Amino acid sequence: MTNLLELYVKLVGLVLLGFLLGRKLPTTVPTRLAQWLFSVGVPISIVAFLREADLSGQIWIAPAIAYLAIFLGAFLAWLGIKGQAYFTNTIPQDSTQGSLILAAMVGNTGYLGFPIILAMVGKEYFAWALFYDLLGSLFGSYGLGVVLASHFGGGVRNYWQITKAIIINPALWSFGLGLLLRQANIPNIVEFCLEKFAWCVVALSLVLIGMRLSRLNSWYKLPQAAMSLAIKMLVVPLVIGITLPLFGVIGVPAQVIVLQMAMPPAFATLVIAETFNLDRDLTVTALALGAMVLLLTLPVWLWLF
Questions:
Q1: Residue whose C-alpha is closest to residue 117's, from 274, 225, 253
Q2: How many CB atoms lie within 10 A of CB 137?
Q3: pLDDT, tens digit (0-9, with 9 covering 90-100), for 8-35
Q4: What would the pLDDT profile of 182-213 be if each residue is shown by its tens digit?
Q5: Which residue in 94, 115, 128, 301 has its CB near the most CB atoms, within 10 A?
């Protein structure tokens, strides 16, 4: 409970700081901060945390569970759309259907999931969250997510650009570099600075979330967003979380996987929605509401698992 309260103080405090800064600073600041975190901050922090992570056990099953959660979320969202059409005789527009499915699929397992895992579980099991995000959520959003978005929306359909964005992702390259440097001997002062830098990046990631939330002002599609969030943050983590012992995942690793599955929709869904002309207002509402709902659901998952 002490760790949870400490996490809430830091989580809410840093996001609120980012929210206030986002209202005051020029709109270019969040963009530049995001670019720096993507290109420099997050890759270096991955190398730092990987040095202390435990890679033993069935850690490679984490991406497989991520794909299972992604496909289950998409399938349940599709069922929800069909159910709405059956009972109300109204069919949402294709762009709205695409945003509903995307919001139920991919979670914010990086910028938000990493800080929560590190605070509640620790660096020893961070690799489980890392494998879930980089080998699961990343390809789920910019792979399957793009395919669905191109089906339901319009806009740019340059798949080579999407493929290139995945291949040159600095986080993926730093992930490989971190694995190679795990056994390397480096001076204590460098190790100390590397760790402090990594924790600063975690804090800046939360500030960036607050900055982006300060730009989200759409709420009129709340009922539709609630359906996607119920699937993404409640149904999928519960259903798959109960079955984790069947995959041999128990204890702290199971807690990490469940927390990653229970994250709110990723900001990548907004990027995809804008690129392929999906329902941006619905996506924005799901992002903002999901960040607030997490404060209520987080202790529930910690208690259940």
A1: 253
A2: 28
A3: 888 889 989 999 999 899 988 988 888 8
A4: 878 888 898 889 889 988 988 898 898 888 88
A5: 128
Which residue has tokens 């895992």?
A: 117
Angle at 75 between CA 293 and CA 273, to 5 degrees: 65
Query: In CATH, what class is 2-304?
Result: mainly alpha
Burial class of residue 246 (count of CB atoms within 10 Å of its CB; 0-12, 13-18, 19+): exposed
d(CA 78, CA 268): 20
What is d(CA 242, CA 65) in angstroms, rounded to the nearest whole number? 12
Domain borders along the chain are: 2-304
Quick one: CA torsion of 133, 240, 225, 205, rounded to 10 degrees? -30
> Between the CA of residue 179 and those of 52, 132, 174, 175, what are the distances in Å?
11, 16, 8, 6
Measured from the Cβ of residue 122, the count of other Cβ atoms closer than 10 Å reads 15
Q: What CA–CA distance (Å, rounded) separates 55 from 32?
A: 33
Residue that has been written with the tokens 């999407």 in this structure: 162
d(CA 147, CA 131): 22
Q: Are 21 and 216 in contact (CB under 8 A)?
A: no
CA dist., res. 188 & res. 224, Å (int): 52
Distances (CA, A) of 132 to 64, 190, 281: 8, 28, 28
C-alpha 153/C-alpha 296 separation (Å) is: 33
